[in-house]
């Protein structure tokens, strides 16, 4: 592969944003952690990294909200099971609402663990 600017020189690196080939003369000094060919690629790469951080933050917030709603719904289902036990002695209703409470509680725990794993 030949350098983009110096067609007669072999490339020693590739821009991590656009994929253009760079020779030793075109590599910026000091050598960055991620090879870039221009300021436009550096700016675009910074925007992409910022967008990725925003998406990851929003994803963590969504998982935390899901855990909270699972806990709330589990509490409501457990309360409904208790009410059904005393007011409506229907085994199906008691088992159904109690089962929903257990499943929602387990889901809330799972979401909470997922949110902790996503923590920076």
Structural account:
The chain is mainly alpha-helical and 120 residues long. It has two domains: 1-39, no CATH class; 51-120. Helix content is 64%, strand content 3%. It is built from two helices and two strands; from the N terminus they run ββαα. It has helices at 39-87, 91-118; strands at residues 13-14, 21-22. It has a two-stranded antiparallel sheet. A hairpin with a 6-residue loop joins β1 and β2 (21-22). The longest helix is centred in the middle third of the chain and has 49 residues, at 39-87. The radius of gyration is 28 Å and the shape is rod-shaped. The two termini are 39 Å apart. The model has no long low-confidence stretch (mean pLDDT 88).
What are its keywords?
120 residues, mainly alpha, two-stranded antiparallel sheet, rod-shaped
SSE order, one letter for each helix or strand: EEHH
Tally the structural domains: 2
Radius of gyration: 28 Å
Q: What overall form do the CA principal axes indicate?
A: rod-shaped
Element layout with pairings:
Layout lengths: L12 E2 L6 E2 L16 H49 L3 H28 L2
Antiparallel strand pairs: 1-2
Q: How would you concisely characterize the structure shown here?
A:
With 120 residues, this protein is mainly alpha-helical. The protein contains 2 helices and 2 strands; from the N terminus they run E-E-H-H.
């Amino acid at each position: 592969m030949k350098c983009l600017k110096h067609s007669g020189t072999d490339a020693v690196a590739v821009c991590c944003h656009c994929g253009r080939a760079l020779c030793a003369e075109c590599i910026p000094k000091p050598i960055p952690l991620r090879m870039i060919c221009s300021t436009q690629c550096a700016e675009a790469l910074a925007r992409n990294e910022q967008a990725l951080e925003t998406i990851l933050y929003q994803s963590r917030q969504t998982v935390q909200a899901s855990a909270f709603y699972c806990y709330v719904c589990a509490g409501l289902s457990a309360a409904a099971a208790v009410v059904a036990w005393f007011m409506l002695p229907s085994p199906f209703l008691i088992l159904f609402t109690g089962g929903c409470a257990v499943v929602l509680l387990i889901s809330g725990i799972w979401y909470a663990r997922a949110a902790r794993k996503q923590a920076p």
